[in-house]
Design goal:
The chain is of the alpha/beta class. 38% of the residues lie in helices and 19% in strands. Strands 1, 2, 3, 4, 5, 6, 7, 8 and 9 form a nine-stranded mixed β-sheet that branches. The longest helix has 21 residues.
Length: 298
């Protein structure tokens, strides 16, 4: 059952919003405000200050809201260690991820809590997301697979928006983030949980991802891809897909010819199930890109 209004003092909330922070002062205010203005009030905001030197901790403390808790790491330990610390400290039965430069829609927590309470067999619920720029202007909408589309496309990084995910705390305490997959820790975790629980994406853009020069997608892309490839190979039980083929499946590189790429897709999807419609649509798009690129080299 959803409980609202907020939990009484000393009573465990339904949700722990887990927000790691490292020198996030530039966008921290709007991020925290978007959490504190949620329509569902049965939550705590747990901020893990990972050795910030820009006053991030002071900004959070300045809100003076009883729902806000701050844990300061003794030094900069990194995102994965901060996430695992947050899992240990969480009081809620659900953990909702939140990045310190992003925005949650006012109904985000309510929608996810309602779905997970009504579907006890689902362990992870995320949402669609909107990309925004540094000023908060919308750039594009990220639509992750929903319903029956999700399982056959689960192999493809990333099947869920990590920062928008809400996960049962009991699952995360048993299956923690691995320090061996930096910048792909979410994708590796989802693959590891594939046989453990069920997943769901809400077909609503309830989260905004801010694109700026310091974001992971901007400065750690190569490491993210390499570690994602490693995670997929482990999920498949060996290197069923080469790194070059993996890049082609994500439209990152056009070095692999379309026929070879089609066979790579079949191997990549061997555990999650084959989606012929996706193969045809995505394969045709890639073939057009590949042909255009090949002609440009002549």
């Amino acid at each position: 059952m959803m409980r609202d209004p907020a939990a009484a003092p000393g009573e465990a909330p339904a949700i722990t919003v887990l927000m790691p922070v490292y020198n996030g002062a530039a966008f921290l205010g709007p991020a925290v405000a978007s959490v504190l203005s949620q329509s569902c009030t049965d939550f705590e905001l747990l901020a893990i200050d990972d050795g910030s030197s820009d006053g991030s901790g002071e900004i959070i403390a300045g809100y003076g809201d009883g729902r806000v808790r701050i844990h300061k790491n003794p030094e900069n330990l990194g995102l994965i260690a901060s996430l695992n610390t947050g899992i240990d400290l969480a009081r809620g039965r659900y953990i909702a991820r939140m990045d310190a430069d992003d925005i949650s829609a006012p109904i985000r927590l309510a929608r996810q809590l309602e779905y997970l309470e009504q579907h006890p067999g689902v362990g992870v619920c995320s949402t669609w997301a909107t990309f925004i720029d540094e000023q908060g202007s919308e750039l594009a909408v990220l639509k992750t697979p929903v319903g029956r589309e999700l399982r056959p496309l689960f192999w493809r990084p990333s099947p869920l928006v990590h920062a928008a995910a809400m996960v049962r705390t009991s699952i995360l305490r048993e299956h923690r983030y691995s320090p061996d997959f930096a910048h792909a820790e979410d994708y590796e975790l989802w693959l590891r949980l594939y046989d453990v629980t069920s997943f769901h994406n809400l077909a609503e853009p309830l989260y905004a991802i801010r694109r700026h020069p310091g974001s992971v997608s901007s400065c750690k892309r190569e490491t993210q891809l390499r570690n994602s490839h490693r995670a997929l190979c482990r999920f498949l039980g060996g290197e069923a897909v080469s790194y070059e083929e993996f890049e082609s499946l994500l439209h990152v590189d056009l070095a692999v010819n379309p026929l070879k790429r089609s066979f790579a897709y079949i191997r990549a999807a061997r555990r999650t199930g084959f989606d012929a419609g996706y193969l045809l649509r995505d394969g045709w798009q890639y073939a057009r890109e590949w042909l255009k690129h090949a002609r440009s080299l002549r």
